[in-house]
Structures are given as C-alpha cells and as structure tokens.
Write a structure and sequence with these properties.
With 267 residues, the protein is an alpha/beta fold. It contains nine helices and eight strands. The chain binds guanosine-5'-triphosphate (GTP) and magnesium ion. Belongs to the small GTPase superfamily. Rab family.
Length: 267
C-alpha cells in the first residue's frame, strides 16, 4: 500500500477527477483499420517508425490535410525504471539494453494520428516527450521546474520488478503536480515482461487504481501487430489530452464544426 505524509488528502483530491471511459471521444481500434493506413504510413519509413526532429512533421498530400495538436508530456520515475526506454518505445526507436543514466533532459517528438468518434475528423497528435534522468533531476534544481512548465501530461512510471518504485508513486505525483491542476496523469508499469521477478502484483495495481482513480498501463508484454504495444497508451494519452482541452474551452464534447478546441500553438 502506498502511503506517505499527507497522502490520504492527496489521494482524495485525485479521486475527484471524473474517469474518462476509454473510447468515448476517439476510435481506439482505428489504427488497425484499413482507412487509417494512409495516415499511419506518414509516421513510418518502410516498416520502421519515422524519426521526427523538433521542427519536422509528417508530410501529407492535400486530400489528407489534417490539423495537428501539440502537447508537452513529462516522463517521471525513479532512476532505472525505464523512462528513456519508454520514450524510445513510444517513438519506435530501439530500446537500450543497458541502463545509461540520462544526464539531463532528452526530448523526443512522437506523432500519433487519431480519429474523433463524434465527427470522424482525423487529428495528428504531436507529443513532445520530456525525459529527464532522475539523478540529474535531484542534482540540478532548475530541471524539474523546466519539465513542469506548461506541461500538458505526466506519465508516472514504476517498474513491476522494483517495489520501491511503485511505493514511490505518491511522492512522484505530489512532486510533479497539484491536485487541482489540469495536467493529464497516467501511470505506466514497466518491465511487465520480467514476470518471474515481479515485485508488484495485479492486486497491488487494482488497489492503486481504486484509491487514486488513475489508469495504469503495462509495458513490456508481448503484443501482436506493429503498433500493438504502444497504441493503448498513445490512444489514452491523446484521448485524455483532448478531453482536457474540451473541458478547458467549456465544451463537454468537441463541436462538429471545429472538431473540438482546435489546434494549439507550438509547445
Ligand atoms: N525487460 C525490460 N527491460 C526494460 C523495460 N524498460 C526498461 N528496461 C531496461 O531497464 C534499464 C533502465 O532503463 P532506462 O530507460 O535507461 O531507465 P531510466 O528511467 O531512463 O533511468 P535514468 O535515466 O537513470 O533516470 C535498461 O537496461 C532498459 O533496457 C521493460 O519494459 N522490460
Ligand atoms: Mg534515462
């Protein structure tokens, strides 16, 4: 059970956030359908994912012209938990076999196309991932404020093979966010494939979800299909961010004319 000073109060505040049923705003299986292919081909290079620099974007022919919405996503978690590996996974890069401590902030751009349920509009989500080495974060005071500045979502990581990282989640959440802020928060459990060494049980995860009301995603398990491993997390991230934006502009649902709050300025 995760506990820390003042955590009961913190838990209560977070559980007040209404849960977002998956698939209520976007089509979560769209990436598997034939009509999504044209869009997903734009983020691929042959069979591999295409790498995008900070100023690059998928090139679309005029008949596929879609809006791009931009967000900043901070990846938080203990050293060695798998933050850099997750950033690599989400962007389709090779995962480092060894643990090389990240010595500062590394930024990775991920594009993810999504189809809105209400009006069938396609949007490209541009997610700028901020991965900061935990030891660097502790050593240099200016790094955490930079990561938190104008952040739209935070992925809080723990490792299934490291119970301390799971028990540290409440501290991570308290350190990086406020109960009343409008930042999307998702939990990611890494190293789910190393089940022989698991130190966190399904029951622990269920209990955490009940108490905190935050979704938990598992990374590392075998999956079928090119995007199978990352699609659930990227879809959930995109949907939660879209929902958050819709709430901020005072619309419960995206308007058919604009498809929602509309493109945001660069992050
Ligand atoms: N088997 C397995 N190994 C993983 C997984 N995720 C990360 N790893 C390994 O865990 C080690 C540490 O991962 P990193 O991503 O470098 O850790 P980090 O959180 O970025 O650590 P810092 O930069 O020090 O804060 C690496 O050897 C990864 O290959 C996973 O899902 N499964
Ligand atoms: Mg790292």
């Amino acid at each position: 059970m995760i506990k820390s000073r003042g955590s009961a109060e913190l838990e209560a505040s977070f559980t007040m956030i209404p849960p977002q049923p998956p698939g209520s705003l976007i089509l979560i299986d769209w990436y598997r359908s034939a009509d999504s292919k044209e869009y997903f081909n734009r983020i691929k290079n042959k069979k591999q994912r295409r790498r995008f620099g900070l100023l690059e974007a998928p090139v679309l022919p005029p008949h596929l012209s879609v809006d791009t919405v931009r967000y900043k996503v901070f990846i938080s978690g203990k050293s060695g938990v798998g933050k850099t590996a997750l950033a690599a996974r989400l962007s389709g890069l090779d995962i480092p076999n060894m643990h090389y401590e990240t010595t500062g902030i590394e930024s990775t751009v991920v594009f993810w196309p999504v189809k809105l349920r209400d009006n069938g509009q396609v949007l490209f989500f541009r997610l700028q991932l901020w991965d900061c080495g935990e030891n660097a974060l502790r050593r240099f005071d200016h790094l955490l404020p930079s990561c938190k500045e104008q952040v739209d979502a935070i992925l809080f990581l723990f490792s299934f093979t490291d119970r301390a990282s799971f028990e540290d989640l409440s501290n991570q959440i308290a350190r990086s966010s406020e109960p009343s802020d409008s930042v999307v928060k998702l939990i990611v459990g890494t190293k789910f494939d190393l089940f022989m060494h698991a130190d966190v049980t399904d029951q622990d995860v269920r209990k955490f979800q009940e108490v905190w009301g935050l979704p938990v995603f598992r990374m590392g398990a075998d999956v079928v299909g090119a995007f199978g491993e990352v699609a659930p997390l990227l879809n959930a991230l995109a949907e939660s961010l879209w929902h958050q934006d819709c709430m901020m502009v005072g619309a419960a649902r995206p308007s058919p004319a604009t498809g929602g709050p509309g493109p945001r300025p660069g992050v």
